[in-house]
Amino acid sequence: MSNLDRRPPARELGGLASTPAGPVLDLLRGKEVLLGESTRVRRLLPTLGRRLVGAWAFVDHYGPDDITSSAGMQVPPHPHTGLQTVSWLLEGEVHHRDSLGSDARIRPGELALMTAGRGIAHSEQSPAEHPRWLHGAQLWVALPGAHRDAAPDFAHHRRLPGFASDGLTATVLMGTLGGATSPGTAYTPLVGADLDLAAGADVELPLEPDFEYALLASSGSAGVEGTPLERGEMLYLGTGRRSVRLRGAEPSRLLLLGGEPFEERIVMWWNFVGRSGEEIAEYAERWNAEDARFGAVIGYDGDRLPAPALPPVPLRARGRER
Predict the structure, then answer these.
(1) Is 129 one of the annotated binding-site residues?
(2) Does the keyword Phosphoprotein apply (predicted)?
């Protein structure tokens, strides 16, 4: 999925200086932005107060939207570098195409994991005949320096592991949780999991004390360590936790994101992750010149998405939090 902001701010992220040394409960409210022609999303990361959670660098939550009388999601071909995209659907269907020749229909409960590495292009669309509802999350993971120029890749995992306990049904997207390990390839220690809470559920979820964590309420509402979390909100939990207590005020879905604090400083602008402003400018120039670095998306009927103009000022380091 693309960041379609035509004036995206340049951000330098990473480093441990602003990572809490212990548990916190910081509520992060998203910013509503327009994605493509008709899909509105809540952008929860990066946001005021928080830039990264482990290597998770970008979180968009969309829906549930009734797209009966619309085209639904329509995101033209666009590029990525230096990151992985993690696509997670709760309702609906998305047609993914990329410059590797991948052509896949993504459905709820399936993991679409695209590794951009040195460069890839892809498009995302609701099929012409699509379900009524569209609801999901699009996530980016920053690649560490040793892998940021890796060969691009796309993996579609239709079945994912998980576990159930005390009114909780967990599905592990990335990493390991509760003894279940995702088939998705990760390049830093991290975890991503969908948590389906029944009404009245009261569960203690085990965590890694060396990780930092956040919880996004995809649907319904829940209590997290006694703090209410409503749909579309994200709660940052900090580090040093061996567990977190979750209570289902009603049937709800939470998205758990966590990982070891990302030590490297990165620059994220538009759909690129790099290490300097000069790199980002080169990526944008090469994409707009239709350079072979990114390839072409075959089968998409329409124009590519051009990179917006670079900001008129040099990049400024802002760290992990604003």
Answers:
(1) no
(2) no
Asked whether residue 135 is marked as a ligand-binding residue, the answer is no
Residue 95 labelled as part of a binding site: no
Instruction: Work out the burial of residue 144: count CB atoms within 10 Å of its CB; fewer than 13 is exposed, 13-18 middle, 19 or more buried.
Output: middle
- One CATH from 3.40.50.150, 2.60.120.10, 3.50.50.60, 2.60.120.1440 for 11-259: 2.60.120.10
pTM assigned to the model: 0.92
Give the integer Cα–Cα distance in Å for 239 and 228. Answer: 20
Across the range 28-55, mean pLDDT stands at 83
Q: Would the pLDDT of 146 be above 60?
A: yes
pLDDT digit string, tens, across residues 59-96: 999 999 999 999 999 999 999 999 999 999 999 999 99
Looking up tokens 């790099």 gives 274
